[in-house]
Specification:
Elements: H1 39-51, H2 54-60, E1 62-63, H3 73-77, E2 82-85, H4 96-111, E3 120-123, H5 141-147, H6 150-166, E4 171-172, H7 196-211, E5 225-229, E6 243-244, H8 248-264, E7 269-272, E8 276-277, E9 280-281, H9 286-296, E10 302-304, H10 317-327, E11 332-333, H11 338-348, H12 355-371, H13 390-403, E12 405-409, E13 422-426, H14 433-437, H15 457-464, E14 470-473, E15 485-491, H16 509-520, E16 524-530, H17 540-543, E17 546-551, H18 558-564
Parallel strand pairs: 1-11, 2-3, 3-4, 5-7, 6-8, 7-10, 13-14, 13-15, 15-16, 16-17
Antiparallel strand pairs: 8-9, 12-17
Helix pairs in contact: 1-12, 5-13, 6-7, 6-13, 7-8, 9-10, 10-11, 13-18, 15-18
The structure holds beta-D-glucopyranose (BGC).
């Protein structure tokens, strides 16, 4: 087992000293399924590079958010190689046609430059094309992790890529490959689970789904981005952008090996983590980015920084740019001012940053653009009608039901008969598509209420029950006496990144009260938990006759009803170890002392 330094409890203990690592270990490259770069693209990148001025090269390395631009003409003016939409950053009218028009405008501006190098437009399509109104919202990765199905994950990513490509966008910042060691972290739900093996199993499947079997090999393929390199899920107390304290063996077995699987699957881009490793920001870790990832691991794509991450490095801005570009970052996302980044970098070349480093960055970017077919004649795009199409929603419903984990089922309370006479549906997450979708939905932080289209869990239940069932919906659980079965849907409200960091994962008192109120009707109580991580269940674990972890299922709540009423059996298996109490954290499979409430891999089914 790797040596991992662990805090026993959230006690505010000072961080331990970092182990003295003199050399990082590299994973063994596997047989690469993907043969790239191709000689054609190496040649194209090489000859194109020879024609570029320093300003044009630096332009390729610059990726502002569209919100930082004054108009599409800025792409031509500043010779930009890439633009992104950060969470919630989109056209004024949030509808697919407006997205397409907007992205096409930027792409056209890139073609108007002297070099005419095509633009790469990036977005966080992390559970479907989640910024776009009307898109299919798939379960977040924490749910997909419980399916343990590379085949399903690949189909979900493929459908997502189609919706993204329909809006003219070429690149998604996904998948997250973190092994999340402490679920106090607000980004827990973006990852597949607590082990690197789960990321290793499902990350490559997502990459194949997004990119196609080969980068550029599919007309609707988009560029994938493995993130956040490395150690984002291993920080002390689960603090977002915090510090992971690891020896070389732990770095390899928990945080690095899944990136080798991604490289072997042909991933074209990798994003660096905001976090630090043993006290040094990852964006300054040349040994890991250049020597290990690009060197020993054989990564042929390009490395992108995280949003305004350079500004978090020590020193003044000149020193920050020098250390990140020197460490091997090829493209800089969301610089505080992108013009400032361009002039600062230009002044550093060649004295502090050799031209060979700039050429390495730009040729990697050009090679990926070539492999994706961006230099070729325009590809046929999927029609806008794929966005939120019935086929994709059916797939999302399948993903929902396969991601549910049946934790408890006393006296075979589940499945519920669809002819149940008196059914109560309660809880604040029963009829809330925003809450069931979580963060990174329409807005960066997500939001409660009808923020997008789809089916709430309550709506799914209404469709699943027979005509004779009397269904009452009472949010606080005060249902009629004589209720036969109550389904109480509780849990978290949406958040993203550091806003989701918590030192206490106990259930909200309102949720506990709803369960108790439902129980007081005399009903058998089935609790459905909507959450981005395991939570401290306390007395609810005993009160519930049936208990389902539904994670953040997304827009297709009918998938929850499929399992509740038994048209499909639950098959999900926990990708996390479920703590009994806060003092158990962090708790992970393989710990020498391991007494979870539910073990990693737990998941019941119906006979
Ligand atoms: C996140 C990344 C994301 C980027 C762009 C950052 O805040 O850490 O995961 O891809 O924003 O939206």
């Amino acid at each position: 087992m790797p040596v991992e330094t662990k805090p026993p409890i959230a006690s505010g203990l000072p961080e331990p000293a970092a182990p003295n690592v003199t050399e990082w270990l590299a994973p063994e490259p596997g047989p690469s399924a993907v043969k790239w770069p191709s000689p054609r693209c190496v040649e194209l990148a090489h000859s194109k590079l020879a024609t570029l001025s320093l300003a044009e090269k630096i332009g390729q390395m610059t990726q502002p958010d569209r919100g930082q631009l004054t108009g599409t003409g800025d792409v031509e003016k500043y010779l930009l190689g890439s633009v992104l939409s950060g969470g919630g950053s989109g056209p004024t009218r949030n509808e697919p046609a407006a997205w397409l028009e907007m992205v096409d405008g930027y792409a056209k501006s890139a073609r108007a430059t002297k070099s005419a190098i095509p633009l790469l437009y990036g977005i966080d399509a992390v559970h479907g094309h989640n910024n776009v109104q009307g898109a299919t919202i798939f379960p977040h990765n924490i749910g997909l992790g419980c399916t343990r199905s590379p085949e399903l994950v690949e189909r979900v990513a493929r459908a997502t890529a189609e919706e993204v490509a329909a809006t003219g966008i070429d690149w998604t910042f996904s998948p997250v490959l973190a092994a999340v060691r402490d679920e106090r972290w607000g980004r827990t739900y973006e990852a597949f689970g607590e082990t690197s093996e789960l990321a290793e199993l499902l990350g490559p499947a997502a990459i194949r789904g997004f990119q196609g079997p080969k980068l550029g090999g599919s007309p609707t393929g988009i560029l994938a981005c493995a993130k956040h390199f490395i150690g984002d899920g291993g920080t002390w107390l689960g603090k977002d952008r915090g510090n992971a304290i690891v020896d070389a063996q732990a770095a390899l077995t928990l945080h690095l090996r899944q990136y080798q699987a991604a490289v072997d699957a042909g991933v074209g881009s990798v994003m660096v983590s905001y976090s630090s490793l043993n006290g040094t920001k990852m964006h300054a870790q040349r040994g890991l980015i250049t020597d290990i990832l690009k060197g020993k691991m054989g990564f042929a794509g390009f490395v992108v920084s995280d949003y305004a991450a350079i500004e978090q490095l020590p020193g003044n801005y000149t020193e920050q740019v020098k250390s990140a570009i020197g460490a091997g970052v090829d493209m800089v996302m969301g610089a505080k001012t992108f013009q400032g980044f361009q002039s600062t970098l230009a002044a550093l070349v060649p004295k502090d940053i050799p031209m060979s480093r700039i050429d390495d960055a730009v040729s990697r970017i050009l090679t990926v653009k070539c492999e994706m077919g961006l230099f070729d004649a325009p590809r046929a795009r999927p029609p806008l009608s794929v966005i939120g199409s019935p086929e994709h929603r059916t797939l999302a419903r399948e993903a929902v039901r396969r991601s549910l984990v049946l934790l408890v089922n006393r006296n075979d309370t589940l499945p519920i008969s669809s002819n149940v006479s008196r059914l109560l549906v309660a809880g604040r997450n029963a009829d809330d598509i925003g809450n069931q979708s979580g963060g990174w939905t329409i807005e960066w932080q997500g939001g409660s209420g009808p923020i997008t289209t789809g089916t709430t869990i309550l709506q799914g239940i209404r469709r699943a029950v027979g005509p004779t069932t009397q269904l009452t919906h009472v949010r606080d659980g005060h249902g009629p006496a004589g209720t036969e079965v109550a389904v109480v849907v509780i849990g978290e409200r949406p958040y993203a990144e550091g806003n989701g960091d918590r030192s206490d994962l106990s259930l909200d008192p309102e949720d506990v009260a709803a369960v108790k109120n439902a129980k007081a009707t005399g009903a058998k109580v089935v609790v459905v938990l909507i959450s981005g991580r395991p939570m401290i269940l306390g007395e609810v674990a005993d009160l519930a006759d049936g208990l389902i972890a539904a994670w953040l299922p997304g827009s297709e709540g009918a998938g929850v009803a499929d399992v509740l009423f038994g048209s499909e059996k639950p098959t999900g298996k926990l990708g996390f170890s479920w703590p009994k109490q806060m003092a158990d954290l962090p708790i992970n499979i393989g710990d020498s002392h391991y007494e979870p409430l539910f073990a990693f891999g737990h998941g019941l089914t119906y006979p």
